[in-house]
Design goal:
The complex is a heterodimer of chains A (282) and B (553). Chain A is mainly alpha-helical. Helix content of chain A is 73%, strand content 0%. Chain A has a domain at 71-266: MetI-like (MetI-like fold, Orthogonal Bundle), CATH 1.10.3720.10. In chain A, α4 (72-108) runs parallel beside α8 (156-169) and α8 (156-169) runs antiparallel to α10 (185-221). The longest helix of chain A has 37 residues, at 72-108. With 553 residues, chain B is α+β, with helices and mostly antiparallel strands. Chain B has 2 domains: 34-193 and 203-288 and 518-548, Periplasmic binding protein-like II (D-Maltodextrin-Binding Protein, domain 2), CATH 3.40.190; 293-516, Dipeptide-binding Protein, domain 3, CATH 3.10.105. Helices cover 25% and strands 21% of the residues of chain B. In chain B, the strands form 5 sheets. In chain B, strands 1, 12, 13, 14, 15, 18, 19, 20, 21 and 22 form a 10-stranded mixed beta sheet that branches. A 4-stranded mixed beta sheet of chain B has the order 2-11-10-9, with helices on one face. A 4-stranded antiparallel beta sheet of chain B has the order 5-6-8-7, covered by helices on one side. In chain B, a hairpin with a 5-residue loop joins β3 and β4 (94-96). In chain B, α8 (309-318) packs antiparallel against α10 and α14 runs antiparallel to α15 (489-506). Chain B starts with 35 loop residues before the first strand and ends in a 31-residue tail after the last strand. Classes of the chains: A mainly alpha (282), B alpha+beta (553).
C-alpha cells in the first residue's frame, strides 16, 4: 500500500508535471462531454436531412453536416461515449485477465509459470491487428465484440508486468511474515502482494485506454467496428475519406478528436509513471 | 458503385445478371432517350487504330465461362470475348450476332438460325453449329451449375441441319425464346468436349469468337484483352482493353483524376459535386441515363413477422423513398414502384404506391398486434421486440446509405433495424444462397425482355435460385408462365401489368429506386454515341485519333 507520505509525494510530483496536467484536463473534459452528451449535442445525432448533405461548418451546424445531412458536432459528442466505453471496458477486461494470469505465474512459479509465460509468448507472436481482424470476421461486428476482442487479445503486457512485480515482492519479509502466520495463498496474493504491484498496472492501463481507443477507431474506420447508426469517430472518418475532396470537415474533426484524446491519455499515463518512479525522486 | 457500362448488352436467358447487382445500377447499360452528355472538348479527328482503354471495376471477375458466370464484372469481359447467336442493337432490337438471319415458323414453335460462315474461334478453329449444340447441351445438363437453364428447358428439340444451320423446336410458344440465344450458349466444343466444364482452364482464360482476345488475368488486379484482327465485323479500333480492379470507390476516383484509368462509373456525389471543374470536363466526358435495373429491400418470407402483409405495407409506408432518391442518388434516379424499368412498354404506372406516411404505418402495425407494451420505444408482440437485420454487400455506398435512411425511418415507428455489410462472395454464398437473412438490400439488372420467371416463380426458391425471398403466389406463377408462352406483345403486356399490380399490392419487396448510370470516359475516346442501349453497344467503333493516343506498345 502506498503510504500517506508517498501519496502526497505522488500528487506533488504529478502536479508539477505540466504535460501530465494537460493530459488530465483533457481526460476530465472528455468524461464530462460523454456524461452530458444528451444536453450538449445541439441535434439528435441520427437526424437525417437529405436537403442539407455535406454542408460546410456554419452557425447552424458548427462542424458541418455529413453525407446524410446529420450534424457532425452532435455525432462527435455522442461518439465520445463510444470511445470512452470501448477504452475502459476493453482495458478492464485485459487488466483482469492479465492480473490473474500474471499473479498465478509469478506467485507459483515452476510449471505453472512456464505454461502461462509460454502462452503469453505465443499470443505475442501474432500481430494483434490481424488476430482481431480474423476474429471479427467470424462474429458479427458490434461495439461489444470490439471491446471483448481488444480485451482478450491485449492482456499479455499486463501479465508480464504483474509477474515481474510479484517475483520480487514474494521474496520480501512481509510476505514471509504473512505466510508464517498461516495466511493462505489467495489471501497473500490479493491482500499483500497485488496492492503493492498495482502501480505499474495503473500506468499501463491508462496508456492501454489510449491504445484501445485507437484500435476501435481503426476497426470502425475499416467498417468492422462500431456499426451505424451509432456514431463513432472511426466510422465518421470512413465517410470523411470518401468525400475528402469536397468535405474536409468530415475528416478533420473526428481525426482531431482521436488525436487529442489519445494524446491526453498518453500524457496523463506517462505523468503518472514518472510520479510513481522512485528512481526519479528528487 | 456502379459498374461501368460497356459493350454490347449481354443477353441473358434469364435476364438476370445475377450478378447483378454487385454494383448495382448499371450493368448492361441501356437506355433512355434523353441520354445526357455533358459538354466537353470535342475535337474530331480521323478514326484510327491503336491505344488502350483502362476501365476501373470495383469487383474482380469470378468465372469467364458464360454459363457459369454470375457477376457483372465477369460479364463485362465475356461480352468482349464471346458472341451470342443474337444480340440487342442500340435501339434494343434483336439482331443477329453469330446468326446471319433466322426463320421463325408461323406458330412460333420453331426457330431456324442461319449462322455466319467462316467465323473463327480465337485459336483458329472454325465456328459451326456443333458449337451451338454443344453449348445448349451443357446449359441444360443438370451437372452444370448454371442459373440460366430455365429458358433452355423450354426447348423440345434442338437439331443441327447442316454445318451452319441450327434449329430449335419449343414445346409451346415461348416469348423470350429468340432473345435467350445470346452469348450463354456458344462454347468452343473442340476445347471443352469430354471435360468437366467447371474445371476447364477456359473458366480463367476464355477462348471466344468476339472482338477481343483474352491475354491474362491477374486475380484481384487486372484482366487484359487484345483486339482480334480477324473479327467478323471488322477489327476493333482500340488495341487493348485493360480491366483494373480497384475495390474502393474513392481510390478509383483518384485514379481517374490522375488519368490512370479512362473509364469508371461515378457515384452521384462524384457526378454532382466533384466532376464539374473545367479541368475535369476537359479531360473526361460524363454521361447519364436511367439504368436497366432497380434496387429493393427484400423480405425473407420464411420469417413469420414478414409473412403478415400488414407489416410489409407498414414498412413500405414508413420508408421515405423520395428521401433516398434525393439524399443518396442526389436526384439522379427515380423511385421504383415495381420490377420493370419506367419508360419501357412493360412498365405499369398505375400500380398502388406507398407514399411516406409513418402514421399509417403505425396504425397498420398496431392492427397486426405490434405495440410498445414495455415503453422502451420498440414495438413488441408476445414479448418479442420488433427488431431485424438488413444485410447488404460491401462496396456499394448507395446501398449502405439507403440502409441507414431506412434504419432511421423505421426507428421512428418503433422498429429496430441493424445493418450488416458483408463482403460480396460471403454475402452471396453464406447469406443469400442459404436464405440466411431477414431482409436484404440488393438490386437486379434487367434484360430488355420482360420475362421474370426466375425471380418470382415459386418453383425458383431452391438453393442458389433467384427467388431467395421465397415468394409464392399462385396467380403470379400463372401469369409468369402465361406471359412467357404468349407471342402477342399486347397480351403479354396485360399479363405483366396484372403481375405488377399484385406485386405492388403484396410488397414482397419494397421497391426503392432506379438509379442512373453515370459513366465518365476520357475525352480522347471518340465515336461514343449514347442510345437507348447505353453507350457500350458500339465499343468496337470507339477510337482515339492518332495524335491523341496515349499508350503505344
Amino acid at each position: 500500500m502506498i503510504k500517506q507520505r508517498e501519496k502526497s509525494i505522488f500528487w506533488s510530483r504529478l502536479s508539477r508535471n505540466k504535460l501530465a496536467l494537460i493530459g488530465g484536463v483533457i481526460v476530465i473534459i472528455l468524461f464530462l462531454i460523454a456524461l452530458f452528451a444528451p444536453w450538449l449535442s445541439p441535434y439528435d445525432s441520427g437526424k437525417i436531412d437529405v436537403t442539407r448533405i455535406l454542408e460546410p461548418p456554419s452557425r447552424e451546424h458548427p462542424l458541418g453536416t455529413d453525407e446524410l445531412g446529420r450534424d457532425v458536432l452532435s455525432r462527435m459528442i455522442w461518439g465520445s461515449r463510444i470511445s470512452l466505453a470501448v477504452g475502459f471496458v476493453a482495458v478492464g477486461i485485459l487488466s483482469i485477465i492479465g492480473v490473474l494470469l500474471g499473479s498465478l505465474a509469478g506467485y507459483y512459479g515452476g510449471w505453472i509459470d512456464s505454461v502461462i509465460m509460454r502462452f503469453v509468448d505465443i499470443m505475442l507472436c501474432f500481430p494483434t491487428y490481424f488476430l482481431i481482424l480474423a476474429v471479427i470476421a467470424f462474429v458479427s461486428p458490434s461495439i461489444w465484440a470490439i471491446m471483448i476482442v481488444i480485451g482478450v487479445f491485449g492482456w499479455m503486457g499486463v501479465a508480464r508486468l504483474i509477474r515481474a512485480e510479484i517475483l520480487s515482492l514474494k521474496e520480501r519479509e512481509f510476505i514471509l511474515a504473512a505466510r508464517s502466520q498461516g495466511a493462505r495463498d489467495l489471501r497473500i496474493i490479493f491482500r499483500h502482494i497485488l496492492p503493492n504491484a498495482l502501480s505499474p498496472v495503473l500506468v499501463s492501463a491508462i496508456l492501454g485506454v489510449a491504445a484501445a481507443i485507437l484500435t476501435e477507431s481503426a476497426l470502425s474506420f475499416l467498417g468492422i467496428g462500431v456499426q451505424p447508426p451509432t456514431p463513432s469517430w472511426g466510422n465518421m472518418l470512413t465517410a470523411g475519406k470518401d468525400n475528402i475532396d469536397i468535405a474536409w470537415w468530415l475528416s478533420l474533426y473526428p481525426g482531431l478528436a482521436i488525436l487529442i484524446t489519445v494524446l491526453g491519455y498518453n500524457l496523463l499515463g506517462e505523468g503518472i509513471r514518472d510520479a510513481l518512479d522512485p528512481r526519479l525522486r528528487d | 458503385m456502379d459498374k461501368i457500362p460497356k459493350m454490347k448488352i449481354t443477353i441473358l436467358s434469364a435476364f438476370l445478371t445475377l450478378l447483378l447487382l454487385m454494383l448495382g445500377s448499371c450493368d448492361s447499360c441501356q437506355e433512355r432517350k434523353e441520354t445526357v452528355k455533358e459538354p466537353a472538348l470535342e475535337e474530331p479527328g480521323e478514326p484510327a487504330y491503336g491505344d488502350t482503354i483502362v476501365v476501373g471495376s470495383i469487383g474482380d471477375a469470378s468465372n469467364l465461362l458464360p454459363p457459369l458466370a454470375s457477376d457483372s464484372a465477369s460479364f463485362d469481359i465475356i461480352g468482349l470475348v464471346y458472341n451470342g447467336i443474337v444480340k440487342y442493337d442500340k435501339d434494343l432490337k434483336i439482331v443477329g450476332d453469330l446468326a446471319e438471319s433466322w426463320d421463325i415458323s408461323p406458330d412460333g414453335l420453331e426457330i431456324i438460325f442461319h449462322l455466319r460462315k467462316g467465323v473463327k474461334w480465337h485459336d483458329g478453329v472454325e465456328f459451326t453449329a456443333e458449337d451451338v449444340m454443344f453449348g445448349y447441351r451443357k446449359i441444360i445438363d443438370p451437372n452444370t451449375p448454371t442459373a440460366y437453364a430455365s429458358s433452355f428447358e423450354e426447348v423440345k428439340e434442338a437439331e443441327i441441319l447442316d454445318k451452319y444451320t441450327f434449329k430449335v423446336t419449343y414445346k409451346e410458344p415461348f416469348a423470350p425464346g429468340l432473345a435467350s440465344w445470346g452469348n450463354l450458349v456458344v462454347l468452343p466444343q473442340h476445347l471443352l468436349e469430354g471435360e468437366d466444364i467447371t474445371k476447364s482452364p477456359l473458366t480463367r482464360s476464355p477462348v471466344g469468337t468476339g472482338p477481343y482476345r483474352f491475354v491474362e488475368w491477374k486475380t484481384g488486379e487486372k484482366i487484359v484483352l487484345e483486339y482480334n484482327p480477324d473479327y467478323f465485323e471488322g477489327r476493333p479500333h482500340i488495341d487493348r482493353y485493360l480491366y483494373r480492379f480497384i475495390p474502393e470507390q474513392a481510390t478509383m476516383f483518384l485514379e481517374l483524376k490522375a488519368e490512370r484509368i479512362d473509364e469508371m462509373g461515378l457515384t452521384p456525389l462524384q457526378y454532382r459535386r466533384q466532376t464539374n471543374s473545367p479541368d475535369f470536363l476537359q479531360k473526361f466526358n460524363k454521361y447519364r441515363y436511367l439504368s436497366f435495373g432497380y434496387t429493393y429491400l427484400g423480405y425473407n418470407l420464411l420469417e413469420p413477422k414478414f409473412q403478415d402483409i400488414r407489416v410489409r405495407h407498414a414498412i413500405s409506408s414508413a420508408i421515405n423513398k423520395q428521401d433516398i432518391v434525393d439524399g443518396v442518388l442526389l436526384g439522379l434516379g427515380r423511385v421504383a414502384t415495381g420490377p420493370f424499368k419506367p419508360d419501357t412498354i412493360w412498365y405499369n404506372p398505375e400500380v398502388k404506391r406507398y407514399p411516406y406516411d409513418p402514421e399509417k404505418a403505425r396504425a397498420l402495425l398496431e392492427e397486426a398486434g405490434w405495440v410498445d407494451t414495455d415503453g422502451d420505444g420498440i414495438l413488441d408482440k408476445e414479448g418479442e421486440p420488433f427488431s431485424f437485420t438488413i444485410i447488404t454487400n460491401q462496396g456499394n455506398e448507395q446501398r449502405k446509405k439507403s440502409a441507414e435512411i431506412i434504419q432511421r425511418n423505421l426507428k421512428e415507428i418503433g422498429i429496430e433495424v441493424k445493418i450488416h455489410i458483408i463482403e460480396w462472395a460471403a454475402f452471396i454464398n453464406d447469406f443469400i444462397d442459404k436464405k440466411n437473412f431477414e431482409a436484404v438490400i440488393l438490386g437486379w439488372s434487367l434484360d430488355p425482355d420482360p420475362d421474370q420467371y426466375d425471380i418470382w416463380h415459386s418453383r425458383k426458391t431452391k438453393f442458389k435460385e433467384f427467388n431467395f425471398i421465397s415468394y409464392k403466389n399462385p396467380e403470379v406463377d400463372d401469369l409468369l408462365v402465361k406471359a412467357r408462352h404468349t407471342m402477342d406483345p399486347e397480351e403479354r403486356r396485360k399479363y405483366y401489368f396484372r403481375f405488377q399490380e399484385i406485386l405492388a399490392e403484396e410488397q414482397p419487396y419494397t421497391f426503392l429506386y432506379v438509379a442512373e448510370s453515370l459513366p465518365a470516359i476520357h475525352s480522347r475516346f471518340k465515336g461514343i454515341e449514347p442510345a437507348p442501349a447505353g453507350i457500350g453497344y458500339n465499343f468496337i467503333e470507339w477510337y482515339v485519333p492518332k495524335h491523341l493516343q496515349k499508350y503505344t506498345k
